Amino acid sequence: MSDRDPTPAEALCFEAGIKFGTLYHQFAGTPVSPASADSLATAMEDAIENQPHCRSVTVDVRHDELEAAVADGAAEYVELTGRFLEVEIVVDENEGLEVVTRMEMDGGYPLMTVETVRETSAGDASDR
Amino acid sequence: MSDRDPTPAEALCFEAGIKFGTLYHQFAGTPVSPASADSLATAMEDAIENQPHCRSVTVDVRHDELEAAVADGAAEYVELTGRFLEVEIVVDENEGLEVVTRMEMDGGYPLMTVETVRETSAGDASDR
Amino acid sequence: MSDRDPTPAEALCFEAGIKFGTLYHQFAGTPVSPASADSLATAMEDAIENQPHCRSVTVDVRHDELEAAVADGAAEYVELTGRFLEVEIVVDENEGLEVVTRMEMDGGYPLMTVETVRETSAGDASDR
Amino acid sequence: MSDRDPTPAEALCFEAGIKFGTLYHQFAGTPVSPASADSLATAMEDAIENQPHCRSVTVDVRHDELEAAVADGAAEYVELTGRFLEVEIVVDENEGLEVVTRMEMDGGYPLMTVETVRETSAGDASDR
């Protein structure tokens, strides 16, 4: 068994995970309807982009799924949960490291994954 | 001691309270900066207006307070809490009853109060 | 149309609503399983009882419903939502006024209602 | 520039981050007092331990800090925020990989970090 410090890429993947947990659990449960979903998605993007290392957050509302849920439900709105969203979060680090992460539904569960670890050359990173 | 059912005005004040508790505790803790505060305020209004009996929600960001907190803090953003907001929520009931409620800072505590109970005549209510 | 200040009973119903909105939207979305539900229910009771005017909060977990949802789902846990709970909140005011409120499922929707407004005589209230 | 899939350790650090973001933003804003803090800490541990790959969650309440904040404040309770907690979360993967993460106050900011990446024998890990 060996114990070691995290690599820069591991530390950055940890940061990306924080953003996903924040986004999901800050906003899960919010009353949402087809008409209000887009302002909520914008606020989610803007809120999470405040966090350190967060280059971009893209929240896409799954409008078909949301409309179907409202049609099935007992009210004109539902509570926000992962099945109504697809999310991409990109985090970066100034030494030319970038991590692309995503949340998509997978077998009924909102699965969050690291899609790509991108290491740029020092030259590529220098203009950031 | 006497037990009785609530009056329509009492039931509507209960509804107004639900909206305030929802608004506050759904969004408290959200990362917020001077640049992201307005999209969050809009999303809060749109989300809570989905709830039953909710005629209007107005969320005003206290930008001076928010800018001062960010200047004092260890990061470029802070967590949303009541001191950064003033909120008015109006709920109504179809029999000509309306309740106006408000959250404002009072001695360091975000105080939520019923400001006005408004009873309209049947005629006033008929065009809604 | 007439505008007036709230009665003490209306103001107390507003307080009760705040507690319900807080309880629901603070904790909705929490990962919950049959094994972890009871500690969450206890924490919900203790947290909300901190709020002003809150005499008692009772959160009952609907274990059958929760176990069925976990059995149907893609994971060993689900996100907390109203269908897994029954809640009673009692608020009071020192002038001998008490309001009993409840959340129960009603046609697939977690309905929150004022059950009873209780006015005690001055004598009953004096020993509190 | 090179794009690659995450290593198992990177994917596990991402998982650890999700747990931290969940813990923080699910519970931030909860009304908390010295008397209610411990049941909340227990519920936080039990809730997050439901999530995949989560071996253990330890939430320690900083009681001195909490008591000082209540003494300074306008109410008998405060809203939960990072300064009242120290948290350790350990995640693991069944092929001999473990990540230890921690949240502690650092210059007024609740800093979340990966403390240790622990690999048990290379042979155990090599088949992934």
UniProtKB/TrEMBL annotation, chains A, B, C, D:
Pathway: Cofactor biosynthesis; tetrahydrofolate biosynthesis; 2-amino-4-hydroxy-6-hydroxymethyl-7,8-dihydropteridine diphosphate from 7,8-dihydroneopterin triphosphate: step 3/4. It comes from the Archaea. The keyword Nuclease does not apply. It is an enzyme of class 4 (lyase). Substrate binds at E15, M112. Keywords: Folate biosynthesis, Lyase. Coiled coil: none annotated. Residues 8-115 form the Dihydroneopterin aldolase MtpD C-terminal domain. It catalyses: 7,8-dihydroneopterin = 6-hydroxymethyl-7,8-dihydropterin + glycolaldehyde. GO terms for biological process: folic acid biosynthetic process; tetrahydrofolate biosynthetic process. Its EC number is 4.1.2.25. Pfam families: DHNA. GO terms for molecular function: dihydroneopterin aldolase activity. Belongs to the archaeal dihydroneopterin aldolase family. Homotetramer. Catalyzes the conversion of 7,8-dihydroneopterin (H2Neo) to 6-hydroxymethyl-7,8-dihydropterin (6-HMD). This is Dihydroneopterin aldolase.
